[in-house]
Design brief:
Length: 270
């Protein structure tokens, strides 16, 4: 009952409010908010930037999380220490992570100082200018990979810990290499954890905001930053609600795809 009340008050009620705001304008039920959103010149850019950023970040994070989880799982000594080191970025907020990487890429930052000290450049380079959108994208990807890979890693470490060692030992007895054991034994039995990690990370990727704001500002619009702009800068709650519903729709669609691709039959679960 407490959990139901909590979800009703802090999820269901706000969701219904946002959904209603997205289809009303001036007290009338209308699709004008969605039409205004879709007709704005920034919407296509923000939409494709969000999808492109997620398509870049999530696969890199998945590969790194699997590697890190495998390292932690195989360690006999120092496992807890390495796990804590890998998980350090979890204690840093999105905005703080963005500011850390801003301190690296800005004109007076670490990267320019290093390049100048090595004699590579004669004067600082403005990496994050509006003319260098590719560099802005790279900086955002690096910041997101550094900040959020640990979320997936922790989930996968827990999942690998639930896989009985007998399966791997049996495969080794029959001559399977380490790579074959990982592909044929670990990954199939890790599907429930992969589901959880991917769904969580994909949803968060579509909601990226603070890191983009810190590194790209308005030069690299994404759906969540446009939601913020319409809500607090343009003071148009209806269009902001429409953006929020688009983000929700994309998140649900990709969640269903992941559940479909990584479906685990009930009888095959550990």
């Amino acid at each position: 009952m407490p959990a139901t009340v909590f979800l009703g008050v802090f999820f269901l009620y706000p969701f219904l409010n946002v959904a209603w705001d997205s289809v009303t304008r001036g007290g009338e039920v209308t699709l004008a908010n969605y039409q205004r959103m879709a007709g704005h010149w920034k919407f296509p850019t923000a939409f494709w930037n969000t999808l492109f950023l997620a398509a870049l970040v999530v696969p890199i994070q998945l590969a790194m999380a699997l590697t890190m989880a495998s390292i932690v799982t195989r360690l006999q000594k120092g496992r807890t220490t390495i796990l804590y080191i890998f998980a350090i970025p979890l204690g840093i907020s999105d905005l703080a992570a963005g500011l850390i990487w801003l301190a690296i890429f800005e004109q007076s930052g670490f990267l320019n100082s290093m390049l100048y000290g090595l004699g590579v450049v004669d004067q600082p380079i403005l990496f994050l200018s509006y003319q260098n959108t590719t560099v802005i994208l790279i900086a955002i990807v690096l910041a997101e990979v550094w900040r959020a890979t640990a979320i997936m890693m922790v989930i996968l470490v827990a999942g690998m810990g639930l896989i009985p060692k007998e399966y791997g030992e049996a495969a080794e007895v029959f001559g399977a290499s380490r790579w074959q054991r990982f592909i044929r034994v670990t990954l199939p039995m890790l599907k429930p954890s992969l589901q959880t990690a991917l769904i969580l990370r994909v949803i968060l990727a579509f909601e990226v905001f603070a890191v983009v704001l810190a590194l790209g500002g308005t030069q690299f619009p994404v759906l969540m930053s446009e939601t913020y702009q319409w809500q607090f800068v343009m003071q148009d709650r209806g269009v902001a609600a429409a953006y929020a519903m688009v983000i929700l729709g994309i998140s649900i669609a990709f969640t269903l795809v992941i559940l479909r691709l990584l479906h685990v039959p009930k009888e095959a679960r550990i």
